[in-house]
Design brief:
- There is one protein chain.
- With 357 residues, this protein is of the alpha/beta class.
- The chain is built from ten helices and 16 strands.
- Helix 5 runs antiparallel to helix 7 and helix 7 packs across helix 8.
- The protein is globular.
- This is Pilus assembly protein PilM.
- It comes from Massilia psychrophila.
- One of its GO terms (biological process) is cell division.
- Pfam families: PilM_2.
Length: 357
C-alpha cells in the first residue's frame, strides 16, 4: 500500500497547519486550552510570487519553500511537524463497499484491487490511502471505505517544500476536507446546526470552491473559475499598474475615487451572480431545494460590500467564516488584526485541527 502521508489518520504531537495556495502560504498553530477549548497560539502568512503555484501545481519549489521558511520564522513557532493540503482537483476520492471483518492487511489488498478500477494511472505512480467510514447503510455484512489517491509526484513536491524549509510533513489532507473540518467546528456551535444545509463558498485568487453539506455529510462539491485576481486584473488595466502594485493598492484601499463605482461594484455584482448561479445549479443537480446558511471564506471574503450583495441576491442568511470563533487567543495573537484576516485561514485552521483527530 502506497500511503498518502496519513491522509485520514489523527495526529497528536504539536502540529502546524500549512496551507499553500495560489496567492500565498498560511500557517496556523493550535493548542489544547483545557475544558474542551482550543487555543490559537500563532498564525502568519506570506505572499507567493505570481506563477509559483498555478492551478494547485507547484511550479517553483524554491520560491514556495522560501516562502514557507519565511512564514515559519515570522510566526515565532518552534513546531516543525506540519499538516499539508492537496487541491481537490489533484486527488481522486471514491467511496467503496467492502466485506466487514477484514484484517488491516486484507483491507489494503482489497483497496488496491478496487483502486485500480477507478484510478487512470498505474498504482506505482500514485500515493494511496483509505479510511473505514463505518457499517454500510443497507448491508450489516459490509463496510463503507473511502479511498483517496493522488499522483505521487504532486505529493512529493509538497513534502519536498516542507523539507527544504526545515519542516517535516506528517499529514497530507485535501484542502476541501480541511475547510469542511474547520467549518464543522463552527456549525456545531450553531442552534440546529447539524440539521441545516450549509453552503460554503471559498473565494480564492483564481478559483471559488463550493461545498454544500448537512450533518457532516457532503451533498455537493464543485469549483468555479472565479476569484479575486479578476478584480486585480481590472485594476491593472484601468490604472496602468503592475499586478503586484494593483494587488497591494487594492488591499490597502489606496485607489482613485472612481474605483468603487467603475471597478469594485461590477465585480461585486459578478460575484453575487456567480454565487446565485452555483446555488441554482445545486438545486437542479440534486434532490435538495433549499440552503439554510451560506458562509464565505477565503482571501476575498472580506471585500467591502460582498457579504451584503450576496445576501441580498440569494435571499439566504449569509456570514463570513471566522474559523477561530470560540477559541482562546495566545499572547502572540492580536485580536483586531485576526478579525480582518481570519476568513483566509479556514483551510490552515482545518489542517491544524488534525492534531486533535
Amino acid at each position: 500500500m502506497v500511503n498518502l502521508g496519513s491522509l485520514f489518520g489523527p495526529s497528536s504531537p504539536p502540529l502546524l497547519g500549512l496551507d499553500i495556495s495560489t496567492s500565498g502560504v498560511r500557517l496556523v498553530e493550535l493548542a489544547d486550552g483545557g475544558k474542551n477549548v482550543l487555543r490559537l497560539e500563532r498564525y502568519a502568512s506570506e505572499p507567493l510570487p505570481r506563477g509559483a503555484v498555478v492551478d494547485g501545481n507547484i511550479e517553483n519549489i524554491e520560491q514556495v519553500s522560501e516562502a514557507v521558511r519565511r512564514v515559519w520564522k515570522k510566526s515565532g513557532t518552534r513546531v516543525r511537524l506540519v499538516a499539508l493540503g492537496m487541491p481537490p482537483a489533484s486527488v481522486i476520492t471514491k467511496k467503496i463497499i467492502l466485506p466487514a471483518g477484514l484484517t488491516e492487511d486484507q483491507l489494503e489488498v482489497q483497496v488496491e484491487s478496487e483502486a485500480s478500477q477507478y484510478i487512470p494511472f498505474a498504482l506505482d505512480e500514485v500515493s494511496l490511502d483509505f479510511d473505514v467510514l463505518g457499517m454500510a447503510a443497507n448491508s450489516p455484512d459490509d463496510i463503507d471505505v473511502m479511498l483517496a489517491a493522488a499522483r505521487k509526484e504532486k505529493v512529493e513536491d509538497r513534502v519536498a517544500i516542507a523539507e527544504a524549509a526545515g519542516l517535516t510533513a506528517v499529514v497530507m489532507d485535501i484542502d476541501s476536507y480541511a475547510a469542511r473540518a474547520g467549518l464543522e467546528r463552527i456549525t456545531d456551535q450553531m442552534p440546529g446546526g447539524q440539521d441545516q444545509i450549509i453552503a460554503l463558498f471559498q473565494i480564492g485568487a483564481q478559483v471559488t470552491h463550493i461545498s454544500v453539506m448537512t450533518g457532516g455529510e457532503t451533498l455537493y462539491e464543485r469549483e468555479h473559475s472565479f476569484g479575486g485576481n479578476q478584480l486585480t486584473q481590472d485594476i491593472v488595466r484601468a490604472y496602468g499598474l503592475s499586478f503586484e502594485e494593483a494587488d497591494a493598492k487594492k488591499k490597502a484601499g489606496e485607489l482613485p475615487e472612481n474605483y468603487q463605482a467603475e471597478l469594485l461594484n461590477p465585480f461585486l455584482e459578478n460575484a453575487a451572480l456567480e454565487v446565485t448561479r452555483a446555488i441554482q445549479f445545486f438545486y437542479t443537480s440534486t434532490p435538495y431545494t433549499r440552503v439554510d446558511q451560506l458562509f464565505l471564506a477565503g482571501g476575498c471574503a472580506l471585500i467591502p460590500g460582498l457579504l451584503d450583495m450576496i445576501a441580498n441576491r440569494t435571499k439566504i442568511s449569509t456570514a463570513v467564516v471566522s474559523p477561530f470563533k470560540g477559541m482562546q487567543l495566545g499572547p502572540e495573537v492580536r485580536e483586531s488584526q485576526l478579525r480582518a484576516e481570519a476568513p483566509a485561514y479556514l483551510v490552515a485552521c482545518g489542517l491544524a485541527l488534525r492534531r486533535f483527530g
